[in-house]
Every structure is written in structure tokens, then in C-alpha cells.
């Protein structure tokens, strides 16, 4: 386990050189509390290929689909002019459209078994059954009763809600991009979270694995940002996270450290 405290930015949380004690800690979901690896996605794509008798392997389908999915992520939120962002689109809808573009590229028309809607459905259901990280349950148990617990995930409700329920995870407030109709790192996503928790950003820590969606978003919203860096990655963009951890259980240790 390793913890890095960087708090102390001027005018920000923890201006004294360490993060302020929170009244709420909120989490991202996928790749923060649950794993969501590319290898697992490719297994799901293999199921789609088999069911629809598609003339390519899972690696090629993943690469072709992923290209369009990344394009969707790039344009779904205009951070500089949020009211110019396109109308909200759920992952199910966006992923179905990505499959349709791939099938069009391959010339897979109605005379084949290629079915973008069925593929989009299978991708959406993929999100209901992800393996939980070994530290998640213990970490949440250590925090329960000490702070309010929240969650905001860029996700569809049909994937997120069953995933949390099946794992027995409970939070004081849970929100998705679908329920808020906006994706992180948009400020409106975090405002939706703070309102649901009933706690302001200056008293909230936000924990996530993505430097763009989670750290940048939380920073812009005024929260203390916590980066869960499980794989020893380097901070390669501004702003730096206020706190960097490698294991979610370290959150409890930090509270004890700064609480005296």
C-alpha cells in the first residue's frame, strides 16, 4: 500500500497542506469498485460473434467497435460550453449505434444475422456482472458510519443498479450518468452528486480511477480528488489528484491520520 497526499492547492480543499476531513466520500464504480477489463469485454464480443455468426474474431470486432465508442466519448460533453453538448445518449443507445457502424463498414446487411440492437443489448448486460475488487467490501465497511457514502458512475441504470445490488453494496446516494442525464467530467454531474448527498464539494472526497473523468471533474467541481491507481500509472495530465492511493482501504487510514 502507498499513499500520496498532494492537497494544499491555493483556495482548494486542504489548503493547509493536507486534505480536510470529509463529511462524504463518493466513488466512481467501474474500474474503481469493480473491474472492467478489456479482456473481459473481448469475451463478451466473442459471444456476440458466435450468436450472430459474424465473419471476424473478437479482437477485430473490439478494435472496430472501440474506435467508434471512443469517438462518442470525445464528443458527448463540451466542457467549455456545456450547453452546446449534444443531447444525452445512454450507453445502450451509443453502443448499439457503434455496432451498426461496424456492421455497415463490413457490409453486413439484413440478409445476415448481424443485429446491432442485439449486440448493444449484450454489451449493456455486460455491465451487470463485473468482478468486484478484493478491497472494495472491506474499504466500504471501514468507512460506513464515519462519513456519508455516495456513488456517481458514467453508466446506464440497467447495468449499475443490478451490479450494486448483487454485490450487496449500499450507499447513501447513488447516481448514474443516465439518471443525471450528463457524463463526468461535466460540472453538472458532480453538482447532481452533491445535491443528492446533501453535502457541499468542499466537504466531499471523490474517488475514481480516471484522471480525466474523475480527477479533472472533481477538481473543477471543488471536491477533494482521490485517484485509485492500482497499476502504478504515472500522472500524465493536470490537475494532479489531491490524494493518490493504490488500495481503497487506505482511505480509512488517511481519515485516521488527518483526524489526529
Task: Briefly summarize what is shown.
With 260 residues, this protein is α/β, with parallel strands linked by helices. It has helices spanning 38-52, 58-75, 91-105, 116-126, 136-143, 157-167, 177-180, 187-197, 211-221, 250-259; strands at 3-5, 24-27, 148-153, 173-176, 204-208, 224-228, 243-245.
Q: Outline, from the CA principal axes? A: elongated
The CATH C-level class name of the largest domain: Alpha Beta
Output the helix-strand order. EEHHHHHEHEHHEHEEH
Tell me, rounded to a whole number, the average pLDDT: 94
Number of domains: 2
| Secondary-structure content class | alpha/beta
Rg over CA atoms: 19 Å
Strand fraction band? Answer: 5-15%
CATH superfamily of the largest domain: HAD superfamily/HAD-like
Strand order of the largest sheet: 1-7-6-5-2-3-4
Q: Span from first to last CA? A: 21 Å
- The tally of beta strands, per DSSP, is 7
Amino acid at each position: 500500500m502507498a499513499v500520496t497526499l498532494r492537497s494544499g492547492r491555493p483556495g482548494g480543499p486542504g489548503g493547509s497542506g493536507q486534505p480536510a476531513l470529509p463529511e462524504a466520500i463518493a466513488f466512481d464504480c467501474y474500474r474503481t469498485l469493480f473491474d472492467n477489463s478489456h479482456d473481459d469485454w473481448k469475451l463478451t464480443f466473442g459471444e456476440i460473434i458466435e450468436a450472430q455468426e459474424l465473419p471476424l474474431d473478437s479482437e477485430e470486432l473490439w478494435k472496430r467497435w472501440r474506435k467508434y465508442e471512443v469517438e462518442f466519448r470525445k464528443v458527448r460533453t463540451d466542457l467549455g460550453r456545456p450547453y452546446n453538448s449534444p443531447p444525452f445518449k445512454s450507453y445502450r443507445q451509443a453502443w448499439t449505434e457503434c455496432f451498426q457502424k461496424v456492421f455497415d463498414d463490413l457490409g453486413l446487411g439484413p440478409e445476415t444475422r448481424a443485429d446491432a440492437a442485439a449486440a448493444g443489448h449484450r454489451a449493456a448486460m455486460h455491465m451487470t456482472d463485473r468482478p468486484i475488487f478484493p478491497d472494495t467490501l472491506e474499504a466500504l465497511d471501514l468507512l460506513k458510519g464515519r462519513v456519508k457514502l455516495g456513488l456517481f458512475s458514467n453508466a446506464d441504470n440497467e447495468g449499475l443498479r443490478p451490479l450494486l445490488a448483487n454485490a450487496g453494496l449500499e450507499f447513501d446516494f447513488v447516481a448514474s450518468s443516465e439518471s443525471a442525464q450528463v457524463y463526468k467530467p461535466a460540472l453538472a454531474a458532480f453538482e447532481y452528486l452533491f445535491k443528492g448527498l446533501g453535502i457541499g464539494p468542499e466537504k466531499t472526497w471523490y474517488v475514481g480511477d480516471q484522471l480525466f473523468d474523475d480527477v479533472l471533474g472533481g477538481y473543477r467541481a471543488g471536491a477533494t480528488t482521490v485517484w485509485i491507481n492500482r497499476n502504478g500509472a504515472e500522472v500524465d495530465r493536470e490537475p494532479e489528484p489531491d490524494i493518490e492511493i493504490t488500495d481503497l482501504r487506505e482511505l480509512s487510514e488517511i481519515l485516521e491520520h488527518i483526524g489526529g
